[in-house]
Amino acid sequence: MDIKRALRNVRDTGKVTIGFNMTLKKLKKKEVKLVIVSNNCPKEDLDQIKTFKVPIYTFNGTNVEFGSSSGKPFSISTMGIVDAGKSDILALKGEVK
Question: Which among 46, 63, 67, 89 could disulfide-bond with 38, CB atoms 3.0 to 4.6 Å apart, if both were Cys?
Fold first, then answer.
């Protein structure tokens, strides 16, 4: 799977949360199906996300690279997938690291 294409596709056709605080809100409502984090996501944030028992995929890049790959002009450490839309991003559940 081309992760960059999948990230842009889910952002354009699905529903995502960007950032730790927004993702945490949706996690509390049990709306998130998959969480993608950058490889330099703060440990405290990652530990808090893990308490929700949701699949977590670690993006192979920094938060700056994650933001760029998602088509955003800013860094992203956390993205929650609420609805995959026309993307096959949820296939990453099988590649959870």
Answer: 63
Number of neighbours of residue 48 by Cβ within 10 angstroms: 13
Residues β-bridged to residue 17: 80
Tokens of 92: 């990453």
Q: What contacts 14, CB < 8 A, 6 or more positions away?
A: 81, 82, 83, 84, 85, 86, 87, 89
Phi, psi dihedral angles at 39 (to 5 degrees): -75, -5
Are 13 and 87 spatial neighbours (Cβ–Cβ below 8 Å)? yes
pTM (whole model) above 0.85: yes
Pick from 89, 36, 34, 38: which is nearest to 64 by CA?
Answer: 38
Q: Is the pLDDT of residue 22 over 70?
A: yes
